[in-house]
Design a protein that fits this description.
Blueprint (H helix, E strand, L loop, with lengths): L1 H16 L8 H13 L3 H14 L4 H14 L3 H14 L7 H7 L13 H17 L3 H17 L13 H18 L2 H17 L4 H13 L3 H11 L10 E9 L4 E3 L10 H11 L8 H7 L9 E3 L7 E6 L2 E4 L1 E5 H44 L5 H11 L2 H6 L15 E9 L2 E11 L2 E12 L4 E7 L3
Parallel strand pairs: 1-10
Antiparallel strand pairs: 1-7, 2-3, 4-5, 4-8, 6-7, 8-9
Helix pairs in contact: 1-15, 2-3, 3-4, 4-5, 5-7, 6-15, 7-8, 8-9, 9-10, 10-11, 11-12, 13-15, 15-16
Length: 467
């Protein structure tokens, strides 16, 4: 009887391992709000998600991130932060071992709490920082942008090295926040902190022309003649803008970021399939378990590790024009490339372990089903369970179970494809600034905004496209 109970436990543990969770999930809840968001109905979309944000549950972090970004895009920065601040706490980066990661792919992760991709958790702080900037709460903005790079430094690969470079967009906005605080408080120390950030940005990307102007400008302002001479020689230019000018800073969020998709059939995956075959062929197969049977069991199984696929992003840059001056925005953070690379790196680290584990469990499920059926046929003790086990095995237990194994496609859908920044020195005054959106085929659209530029101050504009 103990043997019978053990086999029943194995059989139904396998069913639990790869079963689907029922009920309303993230995809159902997001469908209507996401449609509204991409129609430009940002506030209505956010309101539709508030019940899911407030009730908790396995997808709460996702709903908080989606709702917070929708409110941000609507320009309701204060309410956006009321949603994103608790999301930042919920999304605190907690290291997960490779073993735990590999095991998680063998369950239907839609039934588990969504942890968030590393880059998504970091972007929560980016949006908090931008919200604070737009609300003119510069000290709070600086803290959030600094948190971005602190969190990035905690994300390690298997060998202990950092998995991500510093977020240049966050570092740039950190420097801008320091400059604004320094101007407001007449504190050169904050300006020096901004100068340090610009030096670090230059070290990360020496080809970025915008930061060269910032290094020249702050070296000159701080009276650092030696640095100024060195930058002037290296960059072959000097800084000649009037101290009476103000600055128009454009934060641009372009298009739609990549989203998760299935990689398709497990046995058609060129990396997974050979490892599964080798694992089966080199394993100790019990009586009745054949290689062909295992492959049939996995016939309808999907690869449980998803991939990120890029979506629409028609705008390459924005041309900003006002008061006879013009500049183009520069891409500083490529979110969709980060998303794709993040998951491909994970795939490279995990696919062997996942393939071996799937093959081993497929063999075990067939063996358990065969053994349970034999005992059920021979024993009168099972009573009503005999029919249940016979039905399960007769329907193809392994195939039925593994056909339910699906990749977890949850991700932050409303993110932009990339972040861009534009900085323009301009005479004080009120202007109808033009923002010309350009793509591969030329100009796509033009937006006008009234802006007021004040002497020695920075005016920020936040733009987002959805196509």
């Amino acid at each position: 009887m103990k043997k019978i109970n053990l086999l029943i436990t194995v059989l139904f543990a396998s069913i639990t391992l790869i079963s689907c969770a029922g009920g309303r999930d993230y995809y159902e809840a997001m469908k209507a709000p996401e449609e509204k968001f991409y129609k430009g109905e940002y506030m209505d979309a956010a309101r539709m998600l508030l019940p899911d944000v407030n009730k908790g549950g396995k997808d709460q972090l996702l709903f908080m991130m989606e709702c917070g970004l929708m409110l941000h895009t609507a320009g309701d920065f204060e309410t956006s932060n009321k949603v994103l601040l608790p999301a930042g706490k919920l999304a605190k980066i907690i290291p997960v071992s490779v073993t735990q990661e590999a095991t998680s792919f063998l369950t239907n992760d839609r039934s588990s709490n969504y942890r968030g991709e590393d880059f998504e958790k970091v972007l929560v702080h980016v949006y908090l920082g931008i919200n604070f900037l737009m609300m003119e709460k510069y000290e709070e903005a600086r803290v959030e942008f600094s948190a971005v790079n602190n969190e990035l430094s905690k994300i390690k690969s298997e060998n202990g090295e950092a998995r991500y470079k510093q977020n240049i967009m966050a570092k740039y906005l950190t420097a801008i926040a320091f400059e604004i605080i320094g101007d407001m408080n007449n504190d050169e120390k904050d300006v020096e902190f901004a100068y340090i950030e610009y030096k670090q940005i230059y070290a990360l990307n020496p080809e970025l022309d915008m930061v060269k102007d910032d290094l020249l400008r702050l070296a000159k302002r701080l009276g650092n003649d030696e640095d100024y001479a060195e930058w002037r020689k290296k960059f072959r230019k000097s800084y000649n803008e009037s101290e009476n000018n103000g600055e128009l800073i454009t934060i641009f969020q372009a298009g739609r970021s990549a989203v998760k998709q299935s990689r398709g059939s497990l046995l058609k995956d060129p990396a997974m399939e050979p490892i599964i075959r080798v694992t089966i062929n080199t394993g100790n197969l019990t009586a009745g378990v054949t290689v062909a049977a295992v492959l049939v069991t996995l016939k309808n199984a999907e690869n449980p590790i998803p991939k990120f696929e890029k979506r629409s992003n028609r705008v390459n840059r924005v041309r900003v024009s006002a008061g006879g001056e013009s500049i183009s925005t520069v891409k500083l953070e490529d979110i969709e490339e980060t998303a794709v690379k993040n998951l491909e790196d994970d795939y490279g680290r995990l696919y062997k372990r996942v393939a071996v584990s799937i093959a081993t469990k497929a063999v075990a499920s067939i063996a358990a089903g065969i053994a349970a059926k034999k005992i059920a046929e021979q024993s009168k003790q099972l009573g009503q369970f005999a029919g249940l086990i016979g039905t399960a095995v007769g329907a193809g237990t392994g195939m039925a179970l593994f056909s339910q194994m699906k990749p977890d496609l949850r991700c932050w859908h409303t993110l932009p494809a990339n972040f861009q920044l534009g900085r323009m020195s301009i005479r004080p005054g009120k202007y109808n600034a033009r923002f010309t959106l350009s793509g591969a085929g030329g100009n796509i659209d033009e937006i006008e905004k009234e802006v007021e530029i004040k002497k020695g101050q920075k005016t920020l504009v936040n733009l987002r496209t959805l196509y």
